[in-house]
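User: Please fill in residues for this 277-position structure.
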């Protein structure tokens, strides 16, 4: 039974996730990169540890951080490090430390970028053909986890992330964008947190899930309204090759009996929901 949960990466997603898990009665351990950030975790009731993946483990107490029943890895590839090898080494070193601690269960937060430019309906059985450096790194880490018999791991591939300070009206404002009819694939942070909670509650390990909202409005329809909601300049859309990629969430919904809080990205925008940063 899972009682203690370690979250490596308490940022935009990890911090509200940690708070939610605390409210559900779990003991939560969390990491930040700098000592001055640890007070925020402690104030929220999270057992706080410093961890910097350089990619070596630079921590004030890595063994204590990993003294738990479940490790949630929520560290996206860094923008300042442009090699897949760097991020792979970061996570591989973390997994080696978890293994030394005897930690078995791992939930790895990945991305649908592992599918690359694949077109049509994309589900968990679709080939992963990433082109971006970040997608290549994530694919290799997924493989490392899936093929390591020492871990009972699940992979969670999120599509584009929105909510909190990630306001999509800012993403393309004032830019010239092609493919106006392309469907978008996004998911709200509240749904991300609830999906993770359900995986833990249902003890759902050894699985891979895509996670994207039910509906997929066009890029032009969504981003024009998103910019308007913030009073920003709308993107300028021009003809160009349109994508028809749609991330399917059927397995997630069936396995977890999951219902999205925000199944329709347009409805979320139209409601103009005010959210905490």
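Assistant: Residues filled in for all 277 positions:
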């Amino acid at each position: 039974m899972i009682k203690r949960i370690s979250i490596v990466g308490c940022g935009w997603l990890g911090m509200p996730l940690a708070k939610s898990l605390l409210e559900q009665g779990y003991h939560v351990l969390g990491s930040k990169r700098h000592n001055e950030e640890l007070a925020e975790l402690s104030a929220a009731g999270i057992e706080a540890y410093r961890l910097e993946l350089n990619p070596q483990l630079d921590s004030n107490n890595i063994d204590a951080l990993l003294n738990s029943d479940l490790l949630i890895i929520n560290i996206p590839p860094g923008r300042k490090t442009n090699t897949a090898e760097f991020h792979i080494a970061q996570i591989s070193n973390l997994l080696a430390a978890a293994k030394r601690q005897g930690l078995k269960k791992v939930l790895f937060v990945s991305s649908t970028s592992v599918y690359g430019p694949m077109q049509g309906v994309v589900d968990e059985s679709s080939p992963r053909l990433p082109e971006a450096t970040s997608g290549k790194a994530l694919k290799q880490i997924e493989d490392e986890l899936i093929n390591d018999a020492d871990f009972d791991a699940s992979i969670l591939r999120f599509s584009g992330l929105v909510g909190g300070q990630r306001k999509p009206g800012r993403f393309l404002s004032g830019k010239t964008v092609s493919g106006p009819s392309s469907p978008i694939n996004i998911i709200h942070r509240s749904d991300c947190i609830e999906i993770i909670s359900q995986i833990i509650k249902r003890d759902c390990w050894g699985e891979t899930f895509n996670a994207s909202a039910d509906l997929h409005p066009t890029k032009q329809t969504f981003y024009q309204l998103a910019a308007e909601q913030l009073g920003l300049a709308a993107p300028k859309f021009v003809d160009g090759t349109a994508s028809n990629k749609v991330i399917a969430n059927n397995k997630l919904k069936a396995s977890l009996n999951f219902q999205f809080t925000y199944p329709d990205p347009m409805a979320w925008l139209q409601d103009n929901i005010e959210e905490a940063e």
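For context: DSSP finds nine helices and 14 strands in the chain.
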